[in-house]
Amino acid sequence: MTAFNRVVIDTNVLVALVDQQDKWHASSDALREALKIKNVLLVYFDPVINEAFSVLAKRAQEQKRSQQEISILFETLSRLVPKEAITWISSETQHHYEQVVGLIRDTSGNLNFHDALIALSCRLCGIKVIASFDQDFDQVEWLTRVATPDQVADAFEQMIPIL
User: Is 45 helix (H, G, I), strand (E, B) or coil?
Assistant: First the structure.
């Protein structure tokens, strides 16, 4: 599969897919279905997974959800993205540290460290599309952010695969 056929999933989309109580759940579902129609491979970077577990745990505690509900959220995430489906990029953080910090600086701090690492990893992997509700990714010149089914259709109509 070429880089043209891969889309990175951001934490906010993943958390909303897992948590049916999330305000973005329906939007995330619609976005995922639109991506499936385009027959793309959904890419899950390890910083997204570790952030998703942290966000799900923190929100569940804040909402005073039961331990059983938290376990269900974690099981759902683990089933949606099994360990074998994770693309491990954190091991490269030390090597790309200066570039990540530079990207944070270039976006006036709008991208946090994880988001800058994700954006840089997309560039290094030749991935041009990220599914995210985070508009800060719009500042990254090599990425096209999609947040709706219409944006998915537009993004893939405008792209020409490199053979």
Answer: strand
Q: Which residue has the higher pLDDT, 161 or 67?
A: 67
Tell me the residue ranges of DSSP E strands in the chain.
6-9, 41-45, 86-87, 129-131, 144-146
**Contact between residue 129 and residue 147 where contact means Cβ atoms under 8 Å apart:** no
Round to whole Å and give the CA distance between 89 and 18.
Answer: 22
Architecture of domain 3-154 in CATH? 3-Layer(aba) Sandwich (3.40)
The predicted-structure confidence for 96-132, as pLDDT tens digits, reads as follows 999 999 999 999 999 999 999 999 999 999 999 999 9
Domain ranges of the chain: 3-154
pTM confidence score: 0.90
